[in-house]
UniProtKB/TrEMBL annotation, chain A:
Keyword vocabulary terms for this entry: Cell membrane, Membrane, Transmembrane, Transmembrane helix, Transport
Annotated membrane topology: Multi-pass membrane protein
Cited InterPro entries: MetI-like, MetI-like_sf
Transmembrane stretches, start-end: 6-25, 37-55, 61-82, 89-110, 141-162, 195-219, 239-263
Stated name of the protein: ABC transporter permease
Length: 280, 264
């Protein structure tokens, strides 16, 4: 196991530590690195211009997460309610697109949304004669792309607790006079919350740091944090600032993961309680 | 759905239908267009394989495909070896700190862009000339973590007392590994390798940052990205169809070898 650990240390831990260190240095006059200590780069992260991009990224990632969770949960619920022998088949086909190339799945949306794309063609076919709607290179297109790319994971994450749900719990709730909506809200939803949280964290973390989807579906000028980091390293040549941005991204990610761990812990307690309740 | 009222049952089937339409229509459109003579989404002008033929004559795509194959094969081989040994080492010991667990888990969750810029900074600080070899070094990082997690899942149910028994009966460590441990974990090792291969073939961001300048080390995803940025060309539809077919085949195979992984 030693070679693997050496590999991970040399090519992940050390480079990441290096980026962390870079964030505390100054940018050199000709784009290099000036090795004097500074906190400027982190200050710049909170500059209204860049803070705005962080907020916009969080808003886009949040919207994509919400939509993916609603659709993904509904899909997982329907799969868990399907006849037993069909469930693995449905699940397999729900996850299959996830294993095809990310760029290609994103490109598929360019084909659908561009001015002469499939959706415009469909509108024409239904008798629409006006200007083709501009759907590509909008925030909506970016959100659609993110939802499309990460939906399979939400389905997978929500299916696990839904399929393990003891049907007697819902039955008991109904027998005690609760409506279907109350049963869902008070019994099913709390018990499946860890799955929702896992799926939501996955979509949010991968969306907020995404750079391919905004670049392809948002257009050349569209910027999220990932694009900003990319620019600092490959075009603006301000590596220290790029490193500070990346560290801010990691910090957001860790916060979200911690929140998820809290939800999972609390739900584990609740599940233990519910299990105790049915036994008695 | 059996014991639910018919209205609910219909609603659930409708949800399934809509979700699968959402997931598959975009891909289906791409595949269909790749066989469209005219190549444009505006009109179907007849079935044709000419876009596949033109791919075969596109030297930029062919050399990118070759680069991808080189990167994927070497990084998969190295990662499979290292990842499997890591999995055995960790599982045999049973006692491991949270730090080790985090180290193995990190490559799977760290944002691609962060690992990409970290490796770019690292390689340029070492004054390393970047090319296919640096992409391979980078790909092994996440590939070995995925191989390790697949093999570890298999080892969870492994009875280590048979390893002891083998040693007691006089087998060397190597013989024990070859005749006892390996046969048990082989399906997981192959599944992990197929997963790593697919991840490497599809990986774009880290390759993009660690490839260095020049066309010589362009991989297929980098080539696809460059083509997509220029807009829709019918050749991409054909290329996309082939790439999807390859990765879906490899992963279906991987899943079959490692049944049960999908539901966990």
């Amino acid at each position: 196991m030693a070679p693997a650990l050496v590999w991970l240390t040399a090519l992940m831990v050390v480079p990441c530590a290096l980026v962390l260190a870079l964030a505390f240095f100054r940018r050199g006059i000709y784009g290099g690195i000036d090795y004097t200590f500074t906190l400027e780069n982190f200050g710049l992260v909170f500059d209204p211009l860049y803070a705005g991009i962080f907020l916009k990224s969080a808003r886009i990632a949040g919207t994509a997460t919400l939509i993916a969770v609603v659709i993904g949960y509904a899909a997982a619920y329907a799969i868990a309610a399907a006849p037993r022998r069909w469930q693995p088949v449905f699940l397999f086909f729900a996850v299959l697109p996830f294993w095809s190339n990310y760029l290609i799945r994103t490109y598929a949306w360019i084909v659908l949304l561009n001015r002469e794309g499939l959706i415009t063609q469909l509108l024409r076919w239904f008798g629409y004669t006006g200007e083709p709607p501009s759907m590509l290179y909008t925030e909506g297109a970016v959100i659609a792309g993110l939802v499309y790319n990460y939906l399979p994971f939400v389905i997978l994450a929500c299916y696990a607790p839904l399929s393990r749900l003891n049907p007697e719990l819902a039955e008991a709730s109904r027998d005690l006079g609760a409506s279907a909506a109350t049963t869902f809200r008070r019994v099913i939803l709390p018990l499946t919350l860890p799955g929702i949280a896992a799926g939501a964290v996955f979509v949010f973390v991968l969306s907020i740091g995404n750079f391919v989807t905004p670049a392809l579906l948002g257009g050349g000028r569209f910027q999220m944090i990932g694009n900003l980091v990319y620019d600092q390293f490959l075009t603006a040549n301000d590596w220290p600032f790029g490193a500070a941005l990346a560290m801010a991204l990691i910090a957001i990610m860790l916060l979200v993961l911690m929140a998820q761990a809290m939800v999972a812990n609390r739900a584990a307690g609740r599940a233990a309680q519910a299990a105790g309740g049915t036994d008695g | 759905m059996a014991e639910r009222p018919p209205a609910t049952r219909r609603a659930l089937w409708l949800v399934l239908g809509l979700v699968f339409a959402f997931l598959y229509i975009p891909i289906a459109v791409l595949v269909a267009l790749s066989f469209n003579e005219g190549g444009l989404p505006t009109a179907w002008s007849g079935f044709s394989l000419k876009w596949y033929a033109s791919l075969a004559n596109n030297s930029a795509i062919l050399s990118a495909a070759l680069n991808t194959l080189i990167v994927a094969l070497i990084s998969t081989a190295v990662a499979t070896l290292l990842g499997t040994l890591l999995a055995i080492g960790v599982e045999m010991r049973r006692q491991y700190g949270k730090g080790l667990e985090a180290l193995i888990f990190a490559p799977m969750i760290i944002p691609d862009i962060v690992l990409a810029i970290a490796l770019l900074s690292f390689f340029s600080m070492l004054n390393l000339t970047m090319g296919l070899h640096t992409i391979i070094l980078a790909h092994v990082v996440f590939n070995l973590a995925f191989v390790c997690s697949v093999v570890r899942a298999r080892l969870k149910s492994f009875d280590w007392s048979i390893v002891e028994a083998s040693a007691d009966l006089g087998a060397s460590a190597l013989t024990t590994f070859r005749r006892v441990t390996l046969p048990v974990i082989a399906p997981a090792v192959i599944a992990g390798a197929l997963l790593a291969f697919t991840l490497s073939v599809d990986e774009f961001i880290i390759a993009f940052f660690t490839a260095g300048a020049g066309r010589a080390s362009t991989t297929l995803p980098m080539q696809i990205y460059a083509m997509i940025r220029f807009g829709i060309t019918p050749e991409i539809n054909a290329l996309a169809t082939i790439v999807m077919a390859v990765s879906i085949t490899a992963l279906t195979l991987s899943q079959r070898l490692n049944r049960g992984m999908i539901g966990q």
